[in-house]
Amino acid sequence: MALLLCLVCLTAALAQGCLHCHSNFSKKFSFYRQHVNFKSWWVGDIPVSGALLTDWSDDTMKELHLAIPAEITREKLDQVATAVYQMMDQLYQGKMYFPGYFPNELRNIFREQVHLIQNAIIESRIDCQHHCGIFQYETISCNNCTDSHVACFGYNCESSQQWESAVQGLLSYINNWHKQDTSMRATPAFLVSPALRCLEPPHLANLTLEDAAECLKQH
């Protein structure tokens, strides 16, 4: 059974976007804003396009609608950024456009960017199902662009020995988690899944290997 629980979280993350964490974002979007005046024959397109570019990061997070923290790997952030910059650069290579065309194209690129970020974040979480037990990978938090990591529990165990090792690893992870400062630690999404009441934080302190294995087998 390959089941991914880390996609389930109680609340959506509050963030400002993801693309702004990329090293070239400021340079690229500064150029885009400075040259927006030369992209449309109609003066009304200029303030509309400028607002789209200025609010790009904030609007991105509003449209993601993710029920998991907005944390993306550096590799996937590079891939998203490269795709977005290519679309934007191609749009800016054209001469002045007829009224309405330029802001509409900006909106299309924005929506495609949101789709790419959604897929990038979710795909990394789904990759967890290819692992057996606790798995962690390095990410960037879209909230403040700091290094972070995501922990999840994969069910793709091929033998009873692997399964027992996975459950033992889970117990070890939980024990270490309990020792962390409560004001600093974050609860992994797989520990607050509505489907796993037996793994809710109030029950974790006294969790045994047998209890954890039985709980996980039920799901």
Task: Please tell me about this protein's structure.
- The protein has helices spanning 25-34, 45-54, 56-64, 74-93, 101-126, 160-179, 201-204, 209-217; strands spanning 71-72, 132-141, 147-155.
- It is mainly alpha-helical and 219 residues long.
- A hairpin with a 5-residue loop joins strand 2 (132-141) and strand 3.
- Helix 2 packs parallel to helix 5 (101-126), helix 3 (56-64) packs across helix 5 (101-126) and helix 4 packs antiparallel against helix 5 (101-126).
- Residues 1-15 have low confidence and may be disordered.
- Pfam families: IZUMO.
- This is IZUMO family member 4.
- InterPro entries: IZUMO, Izumo_fusion.
Summary tags:
219 residues; mainly alpha; disordered N terminus; IZUMO; Izumo_fusion; signal
